[in-house]
Every structure is written in C-alpha cells, then in structure tokens.
C-alpha cells in the first residue's frame, strides 16, 4: 500500500484537509497540491506537481510573479498571512490567504510549505463594502447640510465636516459632546426632546426653527429619522439640518412686502372711492352752480321769472341728488342695491343736461346740438345712470373746446333693432393716438388738475355696464372724436 493510499498516513491527511496545502522543493517546484488546491484552482495535482511551468500558470503576470517570489524568498519564513491572487483554470481570479508555517513545522525534504484559505468572496465583499463606505462617506461629507447621529442622551456619535465647520472646528472636535455643550440650554432642551421623541416612537419628524450657532441666530430646516442597531433596536437618530436662514428671511421680507402692498392697495382703494365720490358729487354741485348762474343772469328780465322758478326747482332736485349720492356711499359697505330701473326719456335727460351746461358751453364757444332723440321715446333704464353718461360726455367735450374758435358737439340718436345708438361727436381736435387706448382708465387725464380727475369716462363705462350698455371711441386726429353709446331698449328688473 502506497503512502497516499494509507488513510492514516500524514500525506493522505494533508491531501484531504479542507484547507489548501502546497509545498515547494529547493528548486521552487511545487511538490504537494492537495484536493482543496485542486478545487479552488481547477488544476489537478498531476498537472501541477513536478510541472516547472505550474507557477507561471497560476500567476501568469511576470511582474506580479517576480514580486511575489522575491518577497517569499526574502520574508517567507517570517510572513504569516499573505493574500495572493491566483489565476484559476477558467481564467477567474481567486484570492488566497496563505500562511507560511515552514518554520513552525519543518518537513524535509520540503523547502517550504503553507496553508491557504480562499477569501475571494470575502475580499469582494470587503471591497464592495469599502466602496460603499467611501461612496456614502463622500455623499455625507460633500452634502451641503449638517449631518449627525445623536444618541438618546443627546450625545453626538457622528458629525460630518459641514456640520463641524459650522461650529468652527473639525468632526473629531465634537464627536462625544452633548447638545448642551454646543447649544444654549433652551435650544438644546428642545432639540433633545425631538430626538428622544423620534427614538421612542420610531417616527421621523421635520422641524423648522431658529438655532443659535456660534452666537448667531440661524434658521434651520431639520429632519430627524430613527436609526437601528444590528439587533434592530432603535438606539439613535439621524439628524440632517439644512440652513434656511436666507430663505426664511426672504419669506419674511416677502410677507412684509405683501402686507405693505395690501395696506397700499387699501389706501389706493380708499383714494379711488374718495375720488369717485368727489367726481359724482361734482356733477350735482356743478348743476347747482351753473343753474344759479343762469338764474342770476335772468333775474333782471321780468319775462324770465317762470324760468327762474324752474331753474330753482332744478337746484332743489340736484341738492336732493347730492344727498342721495352721499347716502349711497354710506351704504356701500352694506352692499346696498340700486333701485329698479324705471322709464327714462332720453330727450328730456339730454335737454336737462344741455341746459345745465349751456352757459359754460357758450363761454368755451361750443354749441350743443340735439338731433333725433325725441322719436326714441322712453327706455326702461336707470335715469341717474343715463344722466351720468350724458353729463360726463358733454363735460368732456366742453372741456376739450379751446374757446378760441367755434366748436360743435352734436348728440344724435337712432334706433338699432333692440338697442338705441347715441353718438356724441365733437370737432375739438381729437385725442393723441397714444392716449386713445387709455381714455377709460381710472385717473387717466390729459386735462389740467383743476379741470379733470380722470374718472369721467371710467364712470361712464361703469354706468353703462350697469344698464348693459357699451361705449366705443372713434378718434379723428386733428378733427374731433365721437363716442358711440349703445343702450338696450329695456334692462331686466
């Protein structure tokens, strides 16, 4: 029976051990290659033992092989653990941790022998773990947020470079310190309670609050998430704090700006309302003033006394109108409703407005002419709105007249199916092209401050919208302008 066939012989034991065992003679030829070596390398003992090219097959890179052999010769007796990268028969690289035990267990005639353990998967796992750790370390360290791990007792177990720099130091300066060593007590208490709540409940939270860092108040958006140990028990919390101080300040400034704008808008609305009240009050007051002027001019004429009486009655009516306007604006906040439209005679309204403006028109050398209104009869619209339209458009033409030459405002009317069309055409030179599109804007005017508020045409447009009418402007630059008003024959009550 040969030695390899004897199950109790040392050589048989070495051949069947579950670890790799090889041996070299004095010429560095492999003289022992056990079963585990065969399994790992894919080469049989017959292919390796006594084969002078075996080392080249197992370690084909000449530079690597030369370095390996040199180190083995120089340090082999003292080197206990040496990971070698062996090329297997199928071309795969196998990593083997070799232990040289020749000095501890000398066996003649072997020059050296050792025990090897394949650690290929272990090395792969270690490399993957190293890469993963490097990747996550890079992510954590390059993040713009402060990242830390805090225990239930408020102790920093980890802090990244960003967080440490915000405290003014390095990570190792703060690991092991408590929150109370880094923050004022009130802030530390609040943060510690948040961490403890997350650890106790296992539910993360997000907090936006001011924090004092290096004696400076900074707002942070902080996310806190629970962390588990290897046994699955929550023992700490991951804290990610993003500095949002500039954003918070910008939001505060934006809110202040919004409040300021709201206040400004309220003041503007109050100014608009006041201007509209003033404008609407101006109409009856102007009527009173002009009527009284007419009365004064007619008093010396005995034959005009009845007309004086009529004019004075108009004065009383307009005073009543002024009072109603004031009452209407007093009830504005209570959303008071307008009275239902009654029957309105357009010709009568036009005559009344022309009579009121008669004296002022004569002073500005503009004739006010009515044509075709009488046949239109009565419309079911609010008389005050219609009167406002006539008054403002006549006023607009009178103020446009320069008083240096004769001008004319022609007010004509015609039925157009279920509507009535009124045309207010003057020859006072027209409107500059760049102003045409703005004539209905509130407060826009080309008149002097004493004559215009810029609300007349705006109020006309609003009055017409209440009776479902509309207005258009036809401009003839250098000649005049025509305002075309369309009124429905009836407005639903």
Task: Output the keywords.
493 residues, alpha+beta, Beta-Lactamase, 4 domains, five-stranded antiparallel β-sheet, 15 helices, 17 strands, 44% helix, 24% strand
Molecular shape: rod-shaped
What is the alpha-carbon Rg in Å?
Answer: 52 Å
Q: Please report the number of helical segments.
A: 15
Mean pLDDT: 78
The amount of beta strand, in percent, is 15-25%
CATH class division of the largest domain: Alpha Beta
- Counted beta strands: 17
- The structural domain count equals 4
What structural category do the secondary elements indicate?
alpha+beta
Q: How would you write the strand order of the largest sheet? A: 2-1-5-4-3
The largest β sheet comes out as: 5 strands, antiparallel
CATH topology of the largest domain: Heat Shock Protein 90
Query: Which residues sit in consecutive blocks of at least 5 with pLDDT less than 50?
Result: 261-265, 329-338
Oligomer: single chain
- Going by CATH, the architecture of the largest domain would be 2-Layer Sandwich
First and last CA, distance: 128 Å
General description of the model:
The structure is a single chain. With 493 residues, the chain is an alpha+beta fold. The protein has four domains: 10-125, 2-Layer Sandwich (Beta-Lactamase), CATH 3.30.450.20; 143-243, PAS domain (Beta-Lactamase, 2-Layer Sandwich), CATH 3.30.450; 250-337; 341-493, Heat Shock Protein 90 (2-Layer Sandwich), CATH 3.30.565. Helix content is 44%, strand content 24%. It has helices at 10-15, 35-41, 45-48, 54-58, 62-75, 120-142, 161-167, 179-182, 185-201, 245-298, 305-330, 346-363, 383-400, 433-436, 456-466; strands spanning 20-24, 30-33, 82-87, 93-100, 112-118, 146-151, 156-159, 205-213, 216-228, 234-243, 342-345, 366-371, 378-381, 407-416, 419-426, 470-476, 480-488. The strands form four sheets. A five-stranded antiparallel sheet has the order 2-1-5-4-3. Strands 7-6-10-9-8 form a five-stranded antiparallel sheet, with helices on both faces. The chain has a five-stranded mixed sheet with strand order 12-14-15-17-16. A hairpin with a 5-residue loop joins β3 and β4. The longest helix has 54 residues, at 245-298. The chain starts with 9 loop residues before the first helix and ends in a 5-residue tail after the last strand. Residues 261-265 and 329-338 have low confidence and may be disordered.
């Amino acid at each position: 029976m040969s030695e390899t066939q004897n199950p109790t012989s040392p050589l048989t034991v070495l051949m069947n051990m579950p670890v790799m065992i090889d041996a070299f003679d004095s010429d560095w030829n492999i003289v022992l290659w056990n079963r585990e070596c065969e399994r790992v390398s894919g080469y049989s003992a017959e292919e390796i033992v006594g084969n002078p090219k075996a080392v080249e097959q197992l370690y084909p890179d000449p530079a690597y092989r030369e370095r390996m052999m040199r180190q083995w010769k120089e340090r082999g007796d003292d080197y206990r653990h040496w990971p070698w990268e062996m090329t297997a028969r199928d071309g795969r690289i196998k990593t083997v941790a070799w232990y040289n035990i020749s000095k501890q267990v000398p066996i003649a005639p072997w020059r050296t022998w050792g025990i090897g353990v394949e650690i290929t998967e272990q090395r792969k796992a270690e490399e993957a773990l190293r890469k993963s750790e490097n990747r996550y370390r890079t992510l954590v360290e390059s993040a713009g947020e402060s990242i830390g791990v805090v225990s239930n007792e408020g102790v920093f177990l980890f802090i990244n470079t960003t967080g440490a720099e915000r405290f003014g130091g390095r990570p190792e300066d703060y690991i092991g310190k408590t929150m109370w060593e880094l923050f004022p007590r009130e802030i530390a208490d609040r943060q510690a309670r948040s961490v403890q709540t997350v650890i106790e409940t296992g539910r993360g939270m997000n907090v936006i609050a001011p924090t004092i860092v290096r004696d400076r108040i900074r707002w942070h958006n902080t996310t806190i998430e629970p962390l588990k140990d290897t046994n699955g028990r929550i023992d700490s919390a991951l804290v990610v704090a993003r500095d949002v101080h500039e954003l918070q300040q910008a939001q505060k400034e934006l809110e202040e700006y919004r409040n300021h704008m709201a206040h400004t808008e309220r003041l503007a609305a109050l100014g608009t309302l006041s201007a509209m009240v003033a404008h609407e009050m101006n109409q009856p007051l102007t009527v009173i003033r002009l009527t009284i002027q007419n009365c004064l001019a007619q008093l010396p004429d005995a034959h005009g006394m009845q007309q004086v009486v009529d004019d004075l009655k108009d004065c009383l009516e307009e005073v009543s109108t002024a009072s109603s306007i004031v009452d209407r604006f007093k009830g504005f906040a209570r959303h008071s409703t307008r009275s239902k439209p009654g029957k309105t005679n357009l010709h009568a309204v036009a005559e009344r407005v022309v009579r009121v403006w008669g004296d002022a028109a004569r002073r500005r050398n503009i004739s006010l002419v009515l044509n075709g209104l009488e046949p239109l009869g009565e419309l079911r619209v609010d008389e005050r709105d219609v009167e406002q339209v006539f008054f403002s458009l006549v006023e607009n033409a009178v103020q446009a007249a320069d008083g240096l030459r004769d001008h004319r405002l022609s007010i004509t009317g015609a039925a157009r199916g279920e509507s009535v069309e009124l045309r207010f055409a003057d020859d006072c030179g027209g409107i500059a092209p760049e102003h045409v599109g703005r004539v209905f804007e509130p407060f826009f005017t080309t008149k002097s401050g004493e004559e215009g508020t810029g609300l007349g045409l705006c109020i006309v447009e609003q009055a017409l919208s209440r009776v479902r009418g509309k207005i258009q402007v036809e401009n003839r630059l250098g000649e005049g302008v025509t305002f075309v008003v369309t009124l429905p024959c009836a407005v639903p009550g």
